């Protein structure tokens, strides 16, 4: 199989098993070098995009299994979109450097692992994927993906970057409620997402012009109404961005960015769950979770 055929399969085949087909270890030589921008993924009826708003359970309510299941359903949807959109990028940027394309393939494989982890745990909580409406927030950004660097700015620096904050918050809260297994899943994913942000940074950094700082370049790549707010959680954990190797001035500028949503963090839950006091790492927990 050629990489372009594989990417088309992930994008256009309708079933979840199709989206979970892992990348091959060996590829036939590529012959397709024309950029292809596929506007919508193939999805079976159960996984269609929906505009219905679904509320994510509040952190305080995650003691209930059903609420943990709903949260995981939400995260699983992000993983599915990431698989599709990294496949999309393989087709849209056929002339990207080989190292970047190989990085996309590695990311796809890891997003597939994340999706499987969520699917399995959600089912234990009685929720199957597609049971509730699926938003298409990542797919809505297609108009911004005009270049490899803008794709990386939106997908990796913004969405995957914000996920570093969220993975930490949920790992902490699931652990607070005694669900170590789900907490460990969040940390496994966190460690991979640090790598994904790193890969995105590589694509982004090679495009930063001389005499331009990373922050200004990032701002030049994203388009309103998409703002840097998408690049962080309601609780911003700058240490996670340092782990991913982000430029320190960029980390600070992102921290300083404010808009009308700033200050909406529920400080009570930050206090109650001890959020943000430390960054949890997978390797620190390994001794407690030999099964993962
Ligand atoms: Fe992921
Ligand atoms: Fe990712």
TrEMBL record:
One Pfam family here: DUF455
Protein name per its UniProtKB record: PF04305 family protein
